[in-house]
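Sequence decides. Our protein:
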Amino acid sequence: MRHSARLSALCVSTCLFVSPAAALTPEEAWQIVQDVLAAADMPLGHGAVTRQGDRLVVSDLTATQTMPDDGGTLTATVAELVLRDLGEGAVEVTISPEVTVRGRTRPGDSLDDLTEDALEGLDEILPDEEEEGLGDSNAERPEMAEFSGTLRQTNAKAILSGTPEDLTFDISADALDSRIETTVAAAGTAAVTVRPVSFKGHIATATGTKGSATYAAGNITSETTEARTPGRTRLAVSGLAGDFNFDTPTVPASKKFLGGTGASTTRIGKVVVEAGLTDDAGAAPDFVMTLERLESAIGGKSGPEGDEGKTADVELDATFRMGRMTADGSLDEPGDENPAALTLDLKELSLSLDGAFPGGFDEGDFGAAVAGGTRMAFGLDLAEGSYDIHSTAPDETFRIANTFTAASAAISLGPDGAALRISQGPTTGSVSTANLPGPVDVSLGGLTFNIVAPGLPEKGPGPVEATIALSDFAASEAVWALFDPGKVLPRDPLSLLVDVRGTATAMENIFVEDRPTDDIPLLFDKLDRIEVALNGLGADVKGSGTLTFAGDTPPQTPIGKLAFTLTGVQGVIGKLSTLGVLDPEALLGARGAIGMFTRATGSDVLQSHIEFRPEGTILVNGLPFPIE
């Protein structure tokens, strides 16, 4: 079933509450209802319209919409709409306790979409989210399906006060209950319950449109069953609350959006999703996922709508936080030959997005947009987490498990260049299969990976960095036994550091999409931090130095010095030969190469001093290189 068809089923009744918000009298409110639904391509039919004292009563309302993407139809019927003049500039709007919905559409892949879209339909009453349509109109179309449903409300009403240009509204309901049934390919049911719900705010339209609102819903539940593929899904949301505000200029006759500002926050106490592989409502769920303490904040502004094919001026700042996410249960689909289960636990997850997108650039020309000031930054942080995927078949042995802490990732793009930064604290991992002699366990003390590069030639020298740091990598004896059962090598944890930083200038716009290569051509100014360290297997290697660069075109001439100390390396090479990793010829080559660049200063201690001179020559330990 198409997204727009299903969503409209709930939106119709909501429009009957919200649309009269611009009216002071019942008659004006009734005209607003008709105008709004007509603008939404849902022409409104009705029976008698009568004035009964302070009330305007409209009977037998029917709104119909045709879906252009699949040829389906949606019809919603309301027995009665009542607009009551409360006096002192206030109007109360109510509808019948039940709204009926029926129609025809082509079903999607799953009736689960009904539940998702029904909940999104509540956004017309709760948050002001804008959703995109789902489905591919070019895909092979299944048989047309009939659907019907009801929306029942308890004590739902809207109180409007003020003037049409400066209105305050208070919409509430003790409960909203919906149920949709479909036939043919996607036979099944979807039911959504919300209780209680409130939506309060203010909107002014004298000069543009400016408004603010708060919303809340105590508990939301959704239950879905599907006969085509037996199964059921239950969703429970508690503690939903939020607010939003917006300010936009008046839309002119050209219908072009003139921009504006807006912000919203949303808070959810808890979300629980339960799924079962059968449609037996009494059976325990096969999979349960829980989300706790969800928070989001979105703010931004937009300039006027761009010309055809041009970008608009937009700024955006968004954050999302989640206190905890857990999941436990089966990953199976009916008929799976290798059933498996998942246990997941994530704590303190946060996401952020910050960006500025100046307008007036050709859509798709990202290089020009960045040169004109486009920038964006994305961040992810996770305090700690773990997962365990394992086989549930009695004769199958399979398990992958991982625990990690302090994981973060950050990506930024803009006129100042591009940067990718990844880090992770202590982590452990384990793999078990029937083909391994025992569990393969690994651990890591920490990981850092950074790549930074300038992006535009006109910006001149900018930071450049390539860093990888890996500390205390260790493996269980089952791993070592695969190639060193005799314990020739020491089991020391492995640590690695490569840290190169300096400044350089981009020789071309690196954000142009049709660049001939993926390489980033840089003209280096200096590398004022070069540090290398490797420790493990009984060896220790350290190196450091600095370089400057001469020349305005590649290849440049490096100028500077590097110094290295190698301890225990010869011993490791000998042990690798004992294990057969290095054959005699490779052993001879390795020792010869080390001898060309180093000199012995102690027992299995080697040093190397490399100097890059201005005239382009290289000295290794004071001798010219290559040796003539």
User: Anything to note?
Assistant: The CA atoms of residues 306 and 353 lie 23 Å apart. The chain has a mean pLDDT of 85.
